[in-house]
Amino acid sequence: MAEKYTADELKQILDPDKKEAKRKLPDFGDNLPKEITPPNFLKQKVGSGGLNVKILEKAQKLIDNNSVDFKPMAEPFLNQIGHTINQFEKDNPPADKHRDYILLILSPAMQLKGHGGMFGYTLVTNIANMFIQFLEPIKTLDKNALEMVNGFYAAIHAVIISEIKGDGGKDGAELLEELKAAWMRFKKKS
Predict the structure, then answer these.
(1) Which domains are delineated in the chain?
(2) What tens digit of pLDDT does each residue of 17-41 get?
(3) Residues 6+ apart with CB under 8 A from 15
(4) Using an 8 Å Cβ cutoff, are 99 and 139 in contact?
């Protein structure tokens, strides 16, 4: 039968700094704790190991040489953002309903962020990322917040319509800096 110990006695016995207490380990009998590793069903289905380097290189080459036009793919997301902004202005909802509209804007913004990078529109990805970071903490769309939303929307729209691929160079950097500066001004007002 196992000996009974108080919590303080166990702490002393198991304390690594007290070497003399180590000799007095409790007898747990057959009730020793065991480490159990549960089966990993997902790993069993997928397997282990990474992807072959040649497969990764081939996939990257496909992405780099992608000839799919991004504009038609991005337009539904842009339209959804524009429609939601217009509907918000038309509905003039109470403040407790603003978050619903914000979420309707966030979803297509996230899609634009992901798709932009995949199709070589790094500037769209960067603007959309900033847009998402701006929207996530906001609970209500007051006049200033709505002005910022319109600014982000207009910037993404302009980049896509103008088919500005990559990071946009110097103009892209200036656009990002101006959006960041406007965001900082917004924070000071809020």
Answers:
(1) 68-189 (1.20.120)
(2) 666 544 555 666 666 666 778 888 8
(3) 21
(4) yes
Which residues neighbour 44 within 8 Å (Cβ) at sequence distance 6 or greater? none
Question: Residue by residue, what is the 3-state secondary structure of 14-82?
Answer: HCCCCHHHHCCCCCCCCCCCCCCCCCCHHHHHHCCCCCCHHHHHHHHHHHHCCCCCHHHHHHHHHHHHH
Pick from 106, 88, 97: nearest CA to 143: 88
Instruction: Provide CB contacts within 8 A for 73, sequence distance 6+.
Output: 115, 119
Contact 18, 12 (CB under 8 A): yes
* 129/100 Cα distance (integer angstroms): 20
Answering whether pTM is above 0.85, one says no
The DSSP secondary structure of 120-143, one letter per residue, reads T-HHHHHHHHHHHHHHTT-----H
Q: State the CB neighbour count (10 A cutoff) for residue 139.
A: 10
CA atoms within 13 A on the CB side of 97: 8
